[in-house]
User: What shape does this take?
Amino acid sequence: MTQPTDIRRDLLATALWLAASGVPPLPLRAGKVPFGNCPACAKNACGGRPNMKTPGPCACPAPCHGWAAATTDQGVIGSPRWVPAWREAAGVAYHPGGAGLTVVDLDNAEAIAWARASLPTTRTVPTTRGEHWIYRGAMQGANNVRSGVDIKSTMAYTRWLGPGTGLMAPLPDVVRALTVKAPAPVRPVSVAVPAPVGGGTCPHRTPTYLDRGIAMAEQRITEARSAVHATVYRTFLAVLSTHGRCGCLTETHTGRLFTAAQTKGETARHCTEAWTNALTTLGLTHG
Assistant: This one.
C-alpha cells in the first residue's frame, strides 16, 4: 500500500495496528476532535450511517460521523479517501465499544483517588491530566457521571495514548451503575376535580368500586412498556368517563394517578395536560 510521503505515517501505522488488533480507530484533528463531515454528509444530509450504533465508514469520501467513522477495515483506513485526514491529523482515537471495551476517563487527582478506592484494578493508561482505566465489556458511554469522570464506550470515542499497563479486568457493575439515573422526584400537582353532576348522587354500588378502579388505573400506567404518554391519557380518560360525573373523585385519587404517571417518567406538566385534555374531551370542564 503506497502512500504520499507527507502523510503522518506514525499515526497511520498506529491506526492500522489498532485495526489489526480488532480496535476500530479514527483520525483526530487538533483539539482532540474528529474531522467534520464531508460536504455530502454536512448537517447529516446523508441521513447518517445506518443505525449509527456500530463503527464503520459510510459511503462518503472522508472519515465522517465522528465516532461512527471508526473501522477495523485497513483498506479504508489507508485508502485515498482518508489521505487528506491523515495529512492533517494530530492524533488517533478509537471507539472502545466497537472493541468490546469501556474506558473510565479520570480527569484529575480526585477522580483517580475515587477510582483507586472504588473500582477493581485494571489496565491503566496515563493521560495529560489523569488516567484511563480500561475494562473488558461495553456499555453506553456518558460524560460527567461524577466529578472528573467520563465513560467512553459505545457510541463514543477516546484518544489512543498507548497500550497501558496491567491486566484488563471485566467491566464491574459499579461502573455500569454510574450511568443509571435516579428517577425524577414526583411533584405534587393540584388539578381540577370534576364537580358533582346530577346532584352529586353516586350511581356506584360501594366506595370500593372507585378504589378498585383507581388501583386498576395505576396498574395500567405502571405496566406500560411503550407509548407511556398515550397510555396515561387513555387511562385518565377511562377514569373520568366512569367516575368524573358523580363527584366521587378527590384530589387523593388524582394524586395517586399522577404519582403513577410521574414514576414512569411523565412530567408534572404532561400529566396536567393529559388530565385537562381528558376533561375537555368528556365535556367536564367548567367555564
